[in-house]
Amino acid sequence: MAIPPSSAPFVPALLVIDMQHDFVHGSLAVPGAPQIIDVVNKLLSFPFASKIGTKDFHPSNHISFAATHRKPEFSKITIYPPGGTEGERALEQVLWPVHCVASTPGSEFVHGFNHEALDIVVHKGTHPDIESYSAFRDPWHLSNTELPDLLQARGVTDVFIAGLAGDYCVKCSAIDSVLFGYKTWVIQDAIRSVSDTGSEWEVMEKEGILELDSIQTGEMLRNYSIEK
User: Which residue ranges does the record assign to the Isochorismatase-like domain (predicted)?
Assistant: First the structure.
């Protein structure tokens, strides 16, 4: 783990991805998700310059839902940008159970998660025809969420990421964080994934994303608190 030297700019933000009921106890529960609630709450007690949460906030007919297409859950289809034609920027899409429908109990933050410690909440996946795993933007880069502007306005240099799920929204958000120019860290013991293959960690490492745990994060943030 490389701790920034005291002379280097260091403005850390915590990005907590999708700690919502449906991803912890509901229709698309991630294995082991309840185990990270206390870890994430501990991270929220650290002196990050910004603490930002995200929510999937889907319409009831979202393109990622198997029910929308009347196909089996966890089957796959090919999707295109709205108005796109076959073969144009095609993406493979897993068809999920209905989850995190906007303003329903499943979309709420899970009980026990200290969401009141967040500075702001960013909604994603709000367009019926666009899947958005990343907290930064849709996969075709048609539009950004408010997150890039928030981080820039707050002078953030380093983004620390926790939450669900490691092999989808965490991974995609981390990759975009690097592409937007941020030194990016994933906090391993504060993340759980849908699959147990672990391939997401290799992908993130190749993209220049750094890995650490919550204890190491605390050590870095204590130094930051003293210096600022």
Answer: 13-201
**Domains present along the chain, CATH in parentheses:** 12-58+100-227 (3.40.50.850)
Give the pTM.
Answer: 0.93
Q: Give, as one character, the DSSP assignment of residue 167.
A: I
| Residues 202, 171 contacting (CB under 8 angstroms) | no
- The strand ranges marked E within the chain are 12-17, 50-56, 76-79, 91-94, 120-124, 158-164, 183-192, 210-212
Reported as a single tens digit per residue, the pLDDT across 165-212 is 999 999 999 999 999 999 999 999 999 999 999 999 999 999 999 999
Residue 15's nearest CA partner among 124, 125, 99, 143 is 124
- Sequence-distant (6+) residues with CB within 8 A of 226 are none
What is the rounded CA–CA span in Å between residue 209 and residue 177? 9
pLDDT digits (tens, 9 = 90+) for 80-125: 998 776 667 899 999 999 999 999 999 999 999 999 999 999 999 9
Residue ranges in the chain assigned as alpha helix (H): 21-24, 37-44, 66-69, 147-153, 171-179, 199-206, 214-227
**Per-residue tokens: 193:** 């994934």
Rg, Å, the chain Cα set: 17
Please say whether the beta carbons of 94 and 137 come within 8 A.
no
Whole-number Å distance between alpha carbons of 102 and 24: 16
